[in-house]
Amino acid sequence: MAVLVPTVTVNHWPPRNPGEALSFDPTSRSLAGVFLAQLAIGVLGVLFVTGEYATGMIRATLAAVPTRLPVLWAKAIVFAAVTLVLTVPSTLAAFLIGQSIFTSKHLQASVGDPGVLRAVVGAALYLTVVGLLGLALGAVLRNTAGGISTLFGLLFVLPIIVRFLPSSWADPISRYLPNAAGEAITHVHTDPTGLAPWTGFALFCGYTAVVMAAAAVTLRRRDA
């Protein structure tokens, strides 16, 4: 995606709409792959928990750790650490690849430009929290299909439903949805109708923390 989207953009530059040229953001174009990456990482987060329930290995895990909660915290820490270690260089590489393509039309951005480094690193942070949200949903529902469906519903279906509401309702609600709040940190140019980058990301982390707390409660109270 880091090659495809910038290449298509360059081949169709300049756009027919002058307004599109004025609002062009080379950073977001080079990070277009984040949209697909969140699907993969979110699903992996769900499978990281539900895989053990599907095979029955969770009984052996909880027998080894009777207090149970350390299992959830260990899974969350390991998954978050590995995801972050992989996504930070991946988003940086995607940015650099995209900007190298944009240089042919002198559209490139630099890491030193305002908001660019925050957007690149923020994309990795966003993907990490998406994975943790999937992990928490998997721990709550203990079912792969249910966890993936719920994750997709929160990130993709819910925003579509909100769009069908009257604009007087849809606009104020949209900014607080999980995907809009979390993705705010990945944008170089702040949306005046949305939340500030770090505010939105903090809200997204809050949503994930609530689901993780629910996962901790259900892990303690349910049988394996």
Key attributes of the depicted protein:
11 helices; mainly alpha; 224 residues
How would you describe the overall organization of this protein?
The chain is an all-alpha fold and 224 residues long. The protein has one domain (27-97, 108-221). Helices cover 74% and strands 0% of the residues. The protein is elongated and about 60 Å long. The chain starts with a helix and ends with a helix. The relative contact order is 0.15. The model has no long low-confidence stretch (mean pLDDT 92).
Tally the structural domains. Answer: 1
User: Are there runs of 5+ residues with pLDDT below 50, and where?
Assistant: none
User: Whole-number average pLDDT?
Assistant: 92
- Give the structural class: mainly alpha
Q: How many strands, which pairing sense, and closed or not: the largest β-sheet?
A: none
Number of helices: 11
Report strand %: under 5%
Shape annotation: elongated
Distance between the termini: 41 Å
Radius of gyration: 20 Å
What is the element string, with H for helices and E for strands? HHHHHHHHHHH
User: What proportion of the residues is helical, as a percent range?
Assistant: over 70%
Number of E strands:
0
